Amino acid sequence: MQTVLYVIGLMLATALWGYIFYRKDYHPQPKSVIVQIFFIGLLAIFPIFGYQWAYNNYLPFLSHYLIFQPLLQNSFVLGFVYFILNTGLLAILLFTLSCVLTVILTLISHDTLKNSHQALKDEPLNFVGVAIIMGVVIVVESVTRQWAHQSIIAATLGSLLFLVIIEEYVKHLVVRLVDDKKLKEVDDAITLSIMVGLAFAFMETIIYSIWKNDLNLIIYRIFLSVPIHIIASGIFGYFYGLAHFSQPITAATKPTWSLRWLHKILMVKTSTVYKEEKMLEGLLLATLFHAVANILFELGLAFIVVPLVVAGLWLLFALYNKKISRRAWGPSRGIEMMPKQY
Q1: What share of the chain is helix, strand, coil (3-state, %, to 5)?
Q2: CB 167 within 8 A of CB 197
Q3: How far is CA 186 from the centre of its chain?
Q4: Global confidence as pTM
Q5: Is the separation of the CB atoms in 72 and 202 below 8 Å?
Q6: How many CB atoms lie within 10 A of CB 212?
Q7: pLDDT per residue as tens digits for the range 128-185
Q8: Which of 149, 188, 276, 332 is most deeply packed, by most CB within 10 A?
Q9: Model confidence over 284-326: pLDDT tens digits?
């Protein structure tokens, strides 16, 4: 009976969180879209299981505890090259698994296939970009570890941060592969991302509680782990929304100084620079929030996570209320003027 009550509690909490953020969306998506993306989000954990199966059986060098070794065992240049190659292979593996899952669950729809083709050119680069930053941190740590007499940062990244990046990346891919013309405003991207994060947290809570043989964890995770997934996914969703509407946004607003000089140096469109910048920013901030929360759990400082969650929820509501989030951009290549009240 206790088990049933805990599962019902998790279902009610999931429904409540979903309702709250669905209502925050200025022009919410059709309920059919929400149900579809939530259902796919429930199974988004399986590409991660697929990754674990792959490195356990065929690609051990892609495991989270070995993928950093080239950086620590070779010269800087050679180690970095090996690391980037391994990370690129991992990104392709995650993308392929997520793409296959999404295509099958959307009944091989034309939009999903078209999104997959476009994402094949865009998405893996974002993951590799974050991996480069992680690699720099590990190299710096490997140089200074003698001062601390232990490998603190590398251990933390290997066990926590890297897995967090994988989770956030896979959750984002579900939205990226399903959305296409469904997004009309930035807050649509926030809502759809939250729904995937909510579904992912639901499934992860069930699996983790069974694995630990402790269903009491369900109640604990309802109030902490589930909101953490919601917040991290919502943050990434906001920046993905900005990236999705990069063309109309850059056409309607004055480009920043960084956009102007990167546009000239890289010799690419301002909208392209803006898009890549926002994607990288979103993945970094979502990963940072999620990783900090996980590290606090590992250090036995869960009480600090409570104000962190409160601050994160406040941030999500603020992102929903931003004018750029509620502006009706229409299709990603068109601009619809914002209503006068905004």
Answers
A1: 80, 0, 20
A2: no
A3: 16
A4: 0.87
A5: no
A6: 10
A7: 666 666 666 666 666 666 565 555 555 555 556 778 888 998 999 999 888 766 788 9
A8: 188
A9: 899 889 988 988 887 788 888 999 999 999 999 999 999 888 8
